[in-house]
Each structure stands twice: as structure tokens, then as C-alpha cells.
Amino acid sequence: MSTSSTAPILPATLAPLAPPTVHDSGADTAPGGIVVHSCTTLGATLVLGLRGEIDHFSATPLRALLASAADDGYTGLVLDASRVTFADSGFLAVLEWWPRQGRRLRLVNRSRAVKRLLHAAGAATRSPDRAVSRTAQATS
How many domains does the chain have? Predict the structure, then answer.
């Protein structure tokens, strides 16, 4: 068996440095995600304490947990949102899904982020025509 050693075509000082390979998934890589920091039951009611950020992706495990609870017969849900630091439409989707089929939902201790989301969602559902007609009535 023979081995050959050949020198590189370009000396190391003249060879171009390869740029580092970076994979950009396009997603925010900041740490985040929702954590269920407490979970208790009171009869057929599930009581969850949430902490962290709730967006479309981090809400998926929460939806799975709630789907399992619904399958197990839980009809009530109390969510303590005092430690939620960010919430978007992913959280709204969870809040809208649970009350289907007659289940009860209570959102307690709303953090500033949750209040901001609910306020924005409420403003988005108000009819601009009604606001204009109320303003017109007030000025006449």
C-alpha cells in the first residue's frame, strides 16, 4: 500500500476562506415557548397555570393537552395567565376552541400581554360602521 502526499494547489495563505455555513429557517430563534407551570383538577375542571410565550407554534402542545383533557371528560378549564409574557392569535385559537361542545372556560389573572391581545382582538371584531354611526349620533 502506498500513500502519496501532495501539496495543495494554493498555499494556505492564498486559499480563500470558506464562509461559515449558516442555516436560516426564517423563524425567530429567541428562546420562548409556553410552559404549564401548574396543573390541578377540581372535579371535571382542569386548572392550568401558564408561563412564557404563546404563539402559533408553542400553542400546539397546549392544544394537545387540552384535547386530551376534553377526551378524558373535563368540561371546565381555568387558565391562570399571570405569567404569560407574550400571546398572539395562537392563544386566541386555543381560547376559542375549548368552549365548543358546551365546555366552560375561565381566564384569570390576565398578564399585560394577554390583556393587550384580548383588547386588540376585541377592537378587531367591533364594526367600524357602528362606531361611525355612534359618532354621528353624538354630534347631531
Answer: 1
